[in-house]
């Protein structure tokens, strides 16, 4: 699956409600969307979808704002067990297995 990336070309389209379909996102983003909904939250920040990737000026401005953005978040989802954005978040839609 090719990951959605916010660019200058699709910025206006991505602002439209429903423009990002879960079926067209990577497993990590889909699971983050599921988790966000299960927690009763309405908004999810995904760097690849919230930072214009092909504009160095826009990227630098957003990166300067990251402290404020993360400070105002309720929680941070870290895909620490994922080797790529195509991996699911363990325990969300795929069961987590334990071994001792």
Q: Give the ordered list of helices and strands.
A: HHHH
Low confidence ranges:
none
Task: Give the helix level as a range of percent.
Answer: 25-40%
Assembly state: single chain
Query: Can you tell me the overall shape?
Result: globular
Distance between the termini: 33 Å
User: What does the main sheet amount to?
Assistant: none
> How many β strands by DSSP?
0
Instruction: List the total number of helices.
Output: 4
Average pLDDT works out at 90
Indicate the proportion of strand residues. Answer: under 5%
Number of domains: 1
Describe the structure.
- The protein is mainly α and 100 residues long.
- 36% of the residues lie in helices and 0% in strands.
Descriptive key words:
100 residues, mainly alpha, globular
Layout of helices and strands, plus pairs?
Blueprint: H1 11-14, H2 27-38, H3 47-50, H4 56-71
Q: In brief, what are we looking at here?
A:
This protein has helices spanning 11-14, 27-38, 47-50, 56-71. By secondary structure, it is mainly alpha-helical. The longest helix is centred in the middle third of the chain and has 16 residues, at 56-71.
